[in-house]
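Lecture notes, part 5. Sequence design as translation. It can be helpful to think of inverse folding as translation between two languages: the language of shapes and the language of residues. The source text, in structure tokens, appears below.
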């Protein structure tokens, strides 16, 4: 694509591929030269229902003709309906709405700090994991266990202790301290390279937290809304968190995030302690309600589970025996192929083949395709990407 210089007006905080998409349908994106691409990323786990879904487009325009925004100075009926739907599928008691994953985690962090302060703990500590990602605001980047994300932003916010992911021993040791009020953890690390912990990790963390009145706060910003084949990844282990953060797939591209809480955690934030001007306005709430309805009606949770298994099986058949492939893993439609060497080049090679993929943690090819991906698209994804990876590894 020719450089038209228009991006000079943007702050250069992203490394963007030289392509502009102008429209989309289903799992397909179309660029400014009318070329079609298979979307293996869903805008980083956002467009689970694909692009320009007709029913979502309809409710969005219908709502736009009625009411967009009133502020949270008043009751918002659609926001209350959405909270009730989310409560039913998560068994959480109350919901705070915001506009992104980082804001959802920011709310959880404030909730945990206030929970500690209310208990008389002066300098409360939140345990988070090495390799985690929780966002780019000062609090969420401080919570994030990745020195690259911290770099250049010192002093970081105090009050986080980073421990090894998937280590119950380290968790048990950290949680013993009276200062520790909460554990914030992703059920599967996304940006960290699709890292799936041992079975039972979350339920054991739940037990440890219960023994010490520590809040278990799950960041399901990437894993949530059907991505792993359940509404939420924690449902795989039949436990429930005290606090749950979500965003990405909830609005299918309309910015919305939420922090949900149950038990004592549901009553920590009181009037005046937190807020958001836009959070949960009628426009976003109407779309999110429709997203939940479509996922349920179309059986997309089961679909994500089985399609994910099929895709991983396909990659295993084609790549497992290859030198340089370390692991093929994931759950549902959250899939990682770990290679022996750094592989960011694969993103460009795939783009040339009109396939959108991404690389996490330097050497893990990451796939987060839409939940509505068709069988033949899944086959195409496996075939195209396997060839690209083979060529990359053997050149
Ligand atoms: N938490 C997790 C697990 C994420 O994967 C992300 C984004 O990738 C975030 C939080 C931050 O979300 P946002 O970019 O919407 O602020």
């Amino acid at each position: 694509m020719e450089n038209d210089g228009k991006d000079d007006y943007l702050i250069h905080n992203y490394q963007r591929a030289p392509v502009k998409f102008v429209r989309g349908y289903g799992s397909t994106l179309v660029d400014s030269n009318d070329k079609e691409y298979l979307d293996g990323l869903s805008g980083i786990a956002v467009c689970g229902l694909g692009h320009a879904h007709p029913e979502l487009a309809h409710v969005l325009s219908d709502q736009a003709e009625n009411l967009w925004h009133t502020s949270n100075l008043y009751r918002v009926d659609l926001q209350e309906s959405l909270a009730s739907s989310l409560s039913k599928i998560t068994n959480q008691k109350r919901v705070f709405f915001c506009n992104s994953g980082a804001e959802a985690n920011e709310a959880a962090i404030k909730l945990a700090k206030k929970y500690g302060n209310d208990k008389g703990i002066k300098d409360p500590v939140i345990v988070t994991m090495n390799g985690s990602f929780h966002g780019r605001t000062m609090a969420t980047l401080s919570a994030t266990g990745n020195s690259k994300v911290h770099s250049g932003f010192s002093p970081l916010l105090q009050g986080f202790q980073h421990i090894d992911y998937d280590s119950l021993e380290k968790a048990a040791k950290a949680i013993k301290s009276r200062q520790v009020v909460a554990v914030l953890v992703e059920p599967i690390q996304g940006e960290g390279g699709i890292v799936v912990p041992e079975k039972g990790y979350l339920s054991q963390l739940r037990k440890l937290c219960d023994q010490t009145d520590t809040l278990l706060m799950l960041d399901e910003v990437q894993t949530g809304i059907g991505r792993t084949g359940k509404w939420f990844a924690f449902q795989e282990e039949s436990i429930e968190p005290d606090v749950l953060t979500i965003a990405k797939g909830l609005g299918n591209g309309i910015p919305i995030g939420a922090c949900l809480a149950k038990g004592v955690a549901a009553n920590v934030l009181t009037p005046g302690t937190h807020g958001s001007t836009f959070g949960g306005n009628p426009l976003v709430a109407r779309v999110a309600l429709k997203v939940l309805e479509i996922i349920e009606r179309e059986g997309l949770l089961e679909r994500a589970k089985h399609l994910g298994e099929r895709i991983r099986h396909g990659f295993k058949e084609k790549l497992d025996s290859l030198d340089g492939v370390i692991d093929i893993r994931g759950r549902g439609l959250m899939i990682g192929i770990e290679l022996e060497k750094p592989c960011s080049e694969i993103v460009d090679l795939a783009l040339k083949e009109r396939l959108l993929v991404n690389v996490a943690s330097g050497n893990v090819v990451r796939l987060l395709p839409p939940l509505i991906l068709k069988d033949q698209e899944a086959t195409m994804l496996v075939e195209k990407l396997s060839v690209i990876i083979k060529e990359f590894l053997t050149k």
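The translated text above is only one of many valid answers, since several sequences can fold into similar shapes. The radius of gyration is 21 Å.
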